[in-house]
Amino acid sequence: MVAPPLPPAPARVSRGNRHWPSYARCVEGAPLNSEETGPDVSRADFVFCMTAITWGWSADEAAARLSAKARSNGKAYADVTARNAALAVERRRHQPRRQRDAEPGRR
Question: What is the secondary structure of 52-77 as a DSSP string?
């Protein structure tokens, strides 16, 4: 199952009205892990961070809220995952609108 597309970045972020994306939803939308025994939590972590950053949270804030896998793998895993998600969000923001709309899974 493919994760739902990320919503567009808000034009202006209001600190008083923000909420976190649903981590459970990221896990539900994740593809199977390599053993096909459950969701790929690494991908869920990445999608969660990407969504949180798109919604205005910092990469550090997103890293601090990751999965049990992130906690067991240590701070470095969470930091790298969040930093890579931030880079992906930034690349996406600089893509021309037409190219973004042509990405698979986008309408």
Answer: HHHTT--HHHHHHT--HHHHHH-HHH
- The two tokens of residue 100 are 């973004």
Mean of all residue pLDDT scores within the chain: 81
pLDDT tens digits, residue range 60-103?
Answer: 999 999 866 677 788 899 999 999 999 999 999 888 766 555 65
Is the Cβ–Cβ distance between 33 and 40 less than 8 Å? Answer: yes
Backbone angles phi, psi at 19, to 5 degrees: -135, 165
CB under 8 Å to 34, separation ≥6 — which residues?
Answer: 40
In angstroms, the Cα distances linking 33 to 10, 15, 40, 65, 68 are 32, 35, 4, 21, 16
Assigned token pair, 38: 């459950």
32: three-class secondary structure by DSSP: strand
State pTM to two decimals: 0.72
